[in-house]
Design brief:
about 20% helix; three-stranded antiparallel β-sheet
């Protein structure tokens, strides 16, 4: 368990501290709530300290796979960080879209489903 001093809310400084503690670890999966500031994926996203901090944390940690929720704009979205070889997947499991992801940890393959319909397989 990693700990950085700060209040009970995750602010940019605490998030950066945690990311730096994971910098040289081999992280396979990073599960996050906040959406990273990816304007090329989400042109209408509000870029603020939280979305910038999450994007910076992903670039520091360099996980193989990032799972994210939070946004309810569509069933799912993906983005490949080519420079750090990270696959980002956001899935909306709310009642609006009813989507979910299945990860096969032996080969790091992911399937995205809506109810009982397979939508896609990655990578």
């Amino acid at each position: 368990m990693y700990h950085c001093r700060g209040n009970h809310t995750i602010d940019q400084q605490v998030l950066q501290c945690l990311a730096n503690k994971l910098r040289n670890e081999e992280i396979d999966i990073l599960l996050i709530h906040e959406v990273p500031a990816l304007k090329e994926v989400y042109p209408e996203i509000r870029v603020d300290y939280a979305t910038r901090a999450v994007l910076e944390a992903i670039r520091i940690v360099k996980p193989k796979l990032v799972f994210n929720g939070h946004l309810h704009w569509s069933c799912y979205s993906t983005y490949r960080f080519e420079d750090i070889d990270t696959l980002y997947i956001r899935v909306d499991s709310s009642q609006k879209h009813r989507c979910y992801a299945i990860l096969y940890p032996n080969n790091m393959k992911v399937e995205i489903w809506r109810d009982f319909e397979l939508l896609t397989r990655m990578p």
